[in-house]
Amino acid sequence: METVAAEWTMPPDGAAGGRARRRGGAWGAGLLFLGVSVVVGCRVAGVDGVTPVPQLLAFLPWLLVPAGFGLLIAVLSRWWFGAVWALALLGLLAWFIEPYGKSTEPGGAPLVSFRVMTSNVEFGHATDALVAAVRRERPDIVFVQECEFTCDGKLKKALGGEYPHRAARVAGGSEGSVVLSRFPLDPAEEVAGTMAMPGAVADVRGHAVRLQLAHPMPPLPGRTDRWRRELGELRDFAAEDRRTPLVVAGDFNASQDHAAFRRILDTGLQDAARLAGHDRTVSWPARTAPAFGVQIDHVLLSADFSVRAARFLDLADTDHRALVTDLTLHQRR
């Protein structure tokens, strides 16, 4: 009788296997939630953390995928605490996907309109494609990053007649940058960085506009302190002089989900793409855009400007999409 009773109370193999699978599913979902929670926690705290958090923050909206998959596993595993955890993460992610920063229209009368383009030509490889795009789009001011010696020579030869004014610091590899302009330029101090970030003051049909190219270091593993410091230099520059209308354009190597970039917006600058309804349009990497990626190429504006249009362009031979914006400068009240 004892043997029969023992056999009667043993759970069937199928039930034990089901519990084991549910435990395994709960562990897997928990690991997913833990990783997502670290990144979301840094976003909530307003910090960029250490590697790999800054790199993952750039793709914050895409964390909806592991969080959603984890929710499915938690439900199938009947792990109800995990399901609540997943819903909390999904809610926070949905909240942070919303555009960050001010979105206001200037109240003064319009003074002058002009077009701005920014493009990272990836070590100069996309110079020919940029020249073709400039001739097609006819911007008034062009910000060019990663323009090395060959790139600079091609731009002078192909566009020097149409863009006689320039602010440049030409260097090898990714370090060179150029600002081309149809309008006269007065020299202005550069923002310090590993890669060149030249600036100038443009005379836009009688109105002074401060131009600043942005190209801080990317958040490479082991170099995130330098990335933060150079974004901080751009933030300090933007906060210094509010008397002159300001355009800061280039490859920021940062998105609105990075605290260091949001601090630049907190100085009062507005993102032109956001004002035109393209706040999450992908600019990098170009080969997976627009389906997957992040927006790290920006045109930031002081409150003196309104944006009539913004669009991203695919150029051959570069991992960045170019950004074209149509701006209107308004009179200050």
Topology:
Elements: H1 2-9, H2 13-45, H3 53-57, H4 64-76, H5 80-97, E1 110-120, H6 127-137, E2 141-145, H7 149-159, E3 165-169, E4 177-181, E5 185-188, E6 199-204, E7 207-214, H8 224-240, E8 246-251, H9 259-265, E9 270-271, H10 272-275, E10 297-301, E11 305-313, E12 322-330
Parallel strand pairs: 1-2, 7-8
Antiparallel strand pairs: 1-12, 2-4, 3-4, 5-6, 6-7, 8-10, 9-10, 11-12
Task: Describe this structure as you would to a colleague.
- The N and C termini lie far apart (96 Å).
- With 333 residues, the protein is an alpha+beta fold.
- The model is unreliable at 1-8 (pLDDT under 50).
- It contains 10 helices and 12 strands.
- The strands form 2 sheets. It has a 6-stranded mixed β-sheet.
Integer-rounded radius of gyration: 25 Å
Q: From N to C, what is the helix and strand string?
A: HHHHHEHEHEEEEEHEHEHEEE
Quickly count the helices: 10
Instruction: Please report the distance between the alpha carbons of the first and last residues.
Output: 96 Å
Low-confidence stretches: 1-8
| Residues in β-strands, percent | 15-25%
What is the number of strand segments?
12
Strand order of the largest sheet: 3-4-2-1-12-11
What is the structural class? alpha+beta
Silhouette: elongated
